[in-house]
Amino acid sequence: MAGIVAGWLANRLATGNTLKRARADAEKIIKAAETEGEAARQKIELEAEKKAGERRDALDKEITEALADLKRDQKRLAKREDTLDQKFEQVAQRERELDQMAEQLRLRDEEADRQRQALQDQAAEIRRRLEQVARMSADEAREAVLGEVRKEAQHEAAQVTQQLMEEAETKVREYSREITVQAIQRFAAEHVADTTVRSVRIPSDDMKGRIIGREGRNIRALERATGVDILVDDTPGVIAVSCFDPIRRTIAAEALQKLVADGRVHPSRIEEEVERVRKDMAERINKHGNEAALESNIRGLHPKIVEAMGKLHFRTSYGQNVLRHSIEVAYLSQLIADQLGLDGSVARRCGFLHDIGKAMDHEMEGGHPAIGMEFCRKYRETSEAVLNAVGGHHSDIPATTPYTPIVMAADAVSGARPGARRESMEMYIKRLEELEGLAMEQPHVTEAHAIQAGREVRVIVDAKKADDADAFMIARTIAKRVEEQMTFPGEIKVTVLREVRAEATAR
Fold first, then answer.
1. Beta pairing, strands 316-317 & 320-321
2. How many other C-beta atoms can be found within 10 angstroms of the C-beta atom of residue 149?
3. Max CA-CA distance within the chain?
4. Pair 320, 191: CB distance under 8 Å
5. Which of 360, 342, 385, 211 is nearest to 285 (CA)?
6. N or C: which end of the chain has fewer CB within 10 A?
7. What is the dihedral of CA 148, 151, 157, 162, to 10 degrees?
């Protein structure tokens, strides 16, 4: 027991010493932590005060700049107010001046009215005395004076017009001639004119009776299936097919040829053959359209447009195949556009599609330019140049792009070149006689001769009765009358010659 008590006491004493040392160490650690915490707090407070000072300085600077901007704005506003006040004063002064001027004008108008009335009274008195002296009424004198003035004005207008036209022609004649000649020389398409009369030859006149059929049932079935008129007359070995639609006329003629070759002619056979030829014709139309687009290097056309262009293969104008004419105009337009520095591909597309309305103008109302323009717009041809060229190549609508006059020029060149179009000898002679007759109707004209196959008329005037201005006016009058009264392909040039010859004999 004594040992246990002694051990416990020793342990107690050791534990007490250990606790004392631990408490002393803990107090030291706490004091050190408090010292470090105080130092950190002071450091944080110093940094916060520094940042607050910097922010305060920045805000002061911004406030100073804002005040300076505000003062400048106030100065500008004050200056503007002064300027507006001055302008208001000027406007008020101007209004006062205008009021004064209006009053002065009113007074002048009243004075002018009084003077006008006085002059009218004097003029009436003078007119009355002049009528008494001249023994002419005022209307007769007015007509006489106006006649003299009209003659002088026409003469002066002719001189001015002649001068302006000569100046313009001098500037553009050489350049336009060079472009046109180059285009014609670089593209001269071979042209074959298709006849517009379709005749079907038959081996014998007995075939006419078989085609007509009992009580005309065969010929009626053929006309009903094709929409054409079959003309059977006394002409031996020939049956004529008449229709305004060239495609229906072609279908009827080919179907009739196959029926004649086969020998079996009855209504059901006629319907079968016509339907077979119609399908073949649709394929040929698409083939012609695609070949023309490929030849002209035109891409991106709608199938309906290609089909319409293929129909032009069976359409003629003055004997000229319209599809070949369109291809020719396409290349001529490209050549002219290239010479002028424009886009040749756009011009070629415009020229290729310019007559597309002729493929359906016999089925719709209106001219082929307007029909063609609406057709192209319907089938995704959105180019303004193409639409305007199609609708305006005959001046039906104003030209909005330079490609429209290019197509007009190419169309004229293609239609007027030698061999492009044909007409009968009687119509040709009649047209030349009419052209010379229109020229001979003009005053002071002594001779008129149609030359260049009717594309030019040369007129000779009396040099003693007509001067240069009269000659120019005669040329313009003849050209205008030809445009109004004649129908002709291309254009006709009018040349008026006034020649003075002086002769003397030395002996």
1. antiparallel
2. 10
3. 194
4. yes
5. 360
6. C
7. -140
Q: How far is CA 210 from CA 55, 133, 225, 237, in A?
A: 117, 93, 17, 13
CA dihedral 370, 372, 377, 380 (to 10 degrees): 180
Place of tokens 């001779």: 447
Residues 307-334: what's their mean pLDDT? 86
What's the rounded Cα separation, in Å, for the pair 408 and 110? 59
Q: How far apart are CA 435 and CA 487, in angstroms?
A: 10
Count Cβ atoms below 10 Å from residue 333 Cβ, excluding itself: 31
State pTM to two decimals: 0.48
* CA distance between the termini of the chain: 194
> At 38, is the secondary structure helix, strand, or coil?
helix
Query: Do 490 and 416 meet the contact criterion of CB atoms below 8 Å apart?
Result: yes
The pLDDT of residue 411? 86
Q: How far apart are CA 350 and CA 200, in angstroms?
A: 38
Residue 425 has pLDDT above 60, yes or no: no
Give 90-108 pLDDT, tens digit per residue: 999 989 999 999 899 899 8
Q: Which amino acid, residue 320?
A: Q
* Closest among 424, 442, 447 to 482, alpha carbons compared: 442
